[in-house]
Amino acid sequence: MKYKNLTLAIKRALFLGMLTTIILQSNVLAAEDEKDESVAKLDKIEVVGSRIKRTDIEGVSPVLSVDRDELERSGHNTLQDFIRTLTITSGNTGDDNNNSFANGTSTINLRGLGNNATLVLINGRRMAAHGQAQNITESFVDLNSIPIAAIERIEILKDGASALYGADAVAGVVNIVLRKEFDGAEYTVGYQTDVDGDAPQTTFSAIIGGGNEKTDFTLTFSALQRDALFYRDRDFSASADQRARGGTDQRSTFGFPGTIFSPSAGTFTAHPDCDPDLVRPQLGGTVCSLNFNEFFNFYPESERYSSSLYMNHKISENINLYLDFGINLNRTVNIAAPAPWVGPFSNGSNTTGPGANTILPPEGVAALPFGGLMMFVPENNPFNTFGEGIGLLHRPVEFGPRTSENHTTVYRFNTGVEGYIAQSPWEYDLGFGYSKSRVLIENRNAIDAVKLQSALLGVLDPAGSGDTLFYNPFGENDQRVIDFAKVVYENRDVSWEKSFLLNLTGPLFEMPAGDLGLAVGAEFREQNISNEADPLRNFGGLVGTGQANDTFGGRDVTSVYAELAIPLHKTLEMQVAARYEDYSDFGTTVKPKVGLRWQPNKDIVVRASWGESFRAPSLSELFSGIVSSFPPGLIDPVRCPSPGLPAGEGGNAADLTATDCGNGQNQVNNGGNQNLKPEESTSWNFGVVWEPSYIEGLNLTLDYFKFEHENIIAQLPNQTLVDLNDPNFIVRAGGPGTPISLINNSFVNGAFQEISGVDFGVNYQMSLGDGILQLSNNLTYYDTFDFAPIVVDVNNQQTVGTVIDGTGNVNFGDFPALRDNLSVLYSFGKHNFSATGHFRSGLDTSNANSITGSVETSSWTTLDMSYTYFVGLKSKMQLGCLNCTDRDPVFDPNRGEEAGYFKSTDDPRGAVVYVRWTQGF
Predict the structure, then answer these.
(1) Quick one: pLDDT band at residue 918, thresholds 50, 70, 90?
(2) CB neighbours of 103 closer than 8 A, spacing ≥ 6?
(3) How far apart are CA 229 and CA 495, in angstroms?
(4) Of all helices (H) and strands (E), which one includes residue 718?
(5) Average pLDDT over residues 663-679
(6) Distance between terminal CA atoms of the chain?
(7) Using CA atoms, how far apart are residues 576 and 596, in angstroms rounded to an integer?
(8) The predicted structure's pLDDT at residue 775
(9) Which of 418, 647, 745, 875 could form a disulfide with 871 if both were Cys (CB 3.0 to 4.6 A apart)?
């Protein structure tokens, strides 16, 4: 009741504020005829990092601004591809990550602090998180819902900003400003493909704008179609057996026709009909493996359609009504290998799904070792020629590859009034916003595990023919059997956010060095998520697919903020800001920020900032139900400290299993945690901007940054969790030293995370011949990236664990210590030539029990080039290439990287060529 009353009070206050403002404006209009003077309005702009408009672009905080020209010259069709090239990002998740839980999406990860530690705004307003969380519980704004053709510029605030923008701005803020105030019409068509002709993309975009003295509008439309690119299309990823490149054999133990377990002999033997190239020694015998890379896609088949509308209507000289609307429709088709038999059966007492164990005879349960992940083929099955009931490690390939067709619809709507209060220089913005992300996932070629096991035992034809149908796991099958067990199941995910806001900004009074600027505001937000899965998925009754529970959650957030711009001296300005937020589910928080800007002369600006930020637990992190997965390749350091040695040697357990040493699959339960606390962060930034007057066109920037991030809401990598061997997360049903039976990897509050480094930029412009030459270099170097988890000591007390280094390695994603972009642009007449080199330093792929050991991989450098020819004043043609030297991605030998490359930093496509034509009117 308390929060409902508070919500009503806030809504009433905002409505009354709007009504009062309009009445004031009306009174002023009535008196305007008696006045000859109008209020002079300074040509100031608002830049992300401050709510107070100013004439100086360089404020107290470092901001990277990318304009439309730079976006077009980059040659990228998607925001994901462009963001991946920025030096200030690490660990981004792209839609080429097939094993993602939110397939077909992409994220931005500033400083590598987490996809959900970066606040993404569109036209300065928040967006609802993508309907399906990444990695089950990590909320984010999907960059694929923002077409690059509709973007005017991107503003990236590179320090923490919760004092101004609220939660999630731990690593910074990305404000995507869409095109508006456009007059005329412009159409662009494009075609892009890699040099091998794979995954071609076609694009079309249009922008139309116009109006009169009172009303103007800008309407955009974008479309992208892309074919799929598969692992099999590239030599380096065609096989999961990476031994020839210095890696490991990661082919699946679950193959076709499979591996026979004889209960009487206790042996594992590859089926006689298994392809000899797929037979390998394992499990004390031989297994029939499968190269699942033949099926996986890098980039899914995609279709994206987007439209946006921005309208302004001048009600009066000082009252402006605005409308900002956008809709995005995305369809992606993700392909994975046919499901391995990981059914709802167990050789223990627990059941995980409907009918588990109840349909198996006692000898069938006894024939299910290997963690209960086998299917049972009874002796009376006519296709069983082995003289006894057997266990079978198997992948039913005749059901076809798993296919997930994702349909995502994103709506965005913001409206309000803005203007000046009476004849004063005070500006206001009173608005309402609503955004929604709706995801429908149709999963095809799925298998009902109970029905398939029933067909192994023999089942009457459901069509009523009277025939007893048997599933043949070793060869061709009656189509009636396939139809009996094959299912299509759906996931439906929704996330929405509603907001009311009021912002006021203007000068309080004049000080000796200038006006004391003030910005104040209030905001009320409602957030809601719902994730619903098919009942078969909820009960864990699908082959190769873990259990999932439905998730529902919601919250209200009320906040107020204030910011002061204090001119201490004509050369010195101070920024002071604070924000109070009240969450309906965990309480209140207040976060401050202080910054200084000193300009001793016209050549130099020195800036420094300190601030505190926070990130509230997302609704998914709090309320997500248990979702099970079965990742391969995890190495148990307790039972397999010496991978590669046989049982009993080098400290390996005498009863060593293949799963202990990374050649099997472990069940991992992922889920939310309603006891999570907010993350807390403190950031420092110190920088210098130098534009020497005696070297015209030169600009240099140097910024030192540091983030201390506490109470991290983290889901540690599964291998890192296994290495820590915390009994709260690593379950060994038989007691200490026995095989891992379950990994509980829910989100927890970690101890701390610290990151520090420098950004360095050089820009120089000069006349050269008949044209202009522009040189720029942007570099980011990370000195520290340390993470300390919370672990349980010998007394079963929580304590800070050993610090894990994340700099220059893959412990927390692909995190190179150094990234650098060097660009050259030469413009003369109707011609523009540009070239950009992208460099990242090498990565250390070691982890505590990597079979390949510690490997320092090489750096990666690529070259992009483009040429633009202008036809008249409004039309142009662009030709270009990405990765023009056709550099393959650097090999990642780490176990668990089935495609053999660093997905968040490197591009698997090789050289890409493109052509575009823009026609203006």
Answers:
(1) very high
(2) 95, 97, 300, 332, 334, 404, 406
(3) 30
(4) helix 718-724
(5) 78
(6) 57
(7) 9
(8) 97
(9) 875
Residue type, 52: I
Exposure pattern of 215-226 as b/e (b: 16+ CB <10 Å)?
A: ebbbbbbbbbeb
Q: How far apart are CA 101 and CA 94, in angstroms?
A: 12
Catalogue the E-assigned strands of 179-283: 184-194, 201-211, 215-226, 229-230, 259-262, 267-270, 279-282
Q: What is the DSSP letter of 254?
A: -
Residues in the chain: 921
Beta bridge partners of 559: 523, 581
Sort 528 into a burial class: Cβ within 10 Å, 0-12 / 13-18 / 19+: middle
* pLDDT value at 21 more than 50: no
- The runs of H, that is alpha helices, within 769-899 are none
Question: Residues 553-573, buried b or exposed e (16+ Cβ, 10 A)?
Answer: bebbbbbebbbbbbbeeeeeb
Angle at 226 between CA 225 and CA 228, to 5 degrees: 150
The three-point CA angle 46-164-117 to 5° equals 110
Greatest C-alpha distance within the chain: 106
789 closest CA partner among 752, 815, 747: 752
> Which tokens go with 721?
């969790």
With H, G, I as helix, E, B as strand and everything else as coil, classify residue 250: coil
pLDDT at site 36: 38
Helix, strand, coil abundance in the chain, percent, nearest 5: 15, 45, 40
Percent of the chain with pLDDT over 70: 89
Q: Using 50, 70 and 90 to split pLDDT, how confident is the model at 43? A: low
Task: Indicate the pLDDT class of residue 887, thresholds 50, 70 and 90.
Answer: very high
Rounded to whole angstroms, what are the CA distances from 654 to 635, 836, 851?
16, 56, 19
Query: Which H/E stretch holds residue 640?
Result: none
Give the residue among 619, 666, 614, 618 at the shortest CA–CA distance from 640: 666
Q: What burial letters (b/e) apply to 26-64, b meaning 16+ CB within 10 Å?
A: eebeeeeeeeeeeeeeeeeebbbbbbbbbeeebbbbbbb
The whole-angstrom separation of Cα 235 and Cα 13 is 63
Q: Is the pLDDT of residue 192 over 50?
A: yes
Indicate the DSSP class of residue 888: P
Amino acid at the residue 200: P
Token pair for residue 2? 């308390």
pLDDT at 199: 87
CA distance 720 to 788: 12
Sign of CA dihedral 75, 77, 78, 79: positive
- Sheet containing 267-270, strands listed edge to edge, beginning at the edge strand earlier in sequence: 267-270, 259-262, 390-393, 375-377
Task: For tokens 């606390």, name the residue.
Answer: 677
Indicate the pLDDT class of residue 25, thresholds 50, 70 and 90.
very low
Q: What is the DSSP string of 286-308?
A: EEE-B-GGGT-EEEPEEEEEEEE
Residue range 603-613, pLDDT digits in tens: 999 999 999 99
Across residues 670-674, what is the average pLDDT?
77
Alpha carbon of residue 579 to chain centroid: 27
CA pair distance 292, 297, nearest whole angstrom? 11
Closest CA to 553 of 621, 499, 483: 621
CB 143 within 8 A of CB 93: no
- Look at residue 616 and tell me whether its pLDDT is greater than 90: no
DSSP 546: -
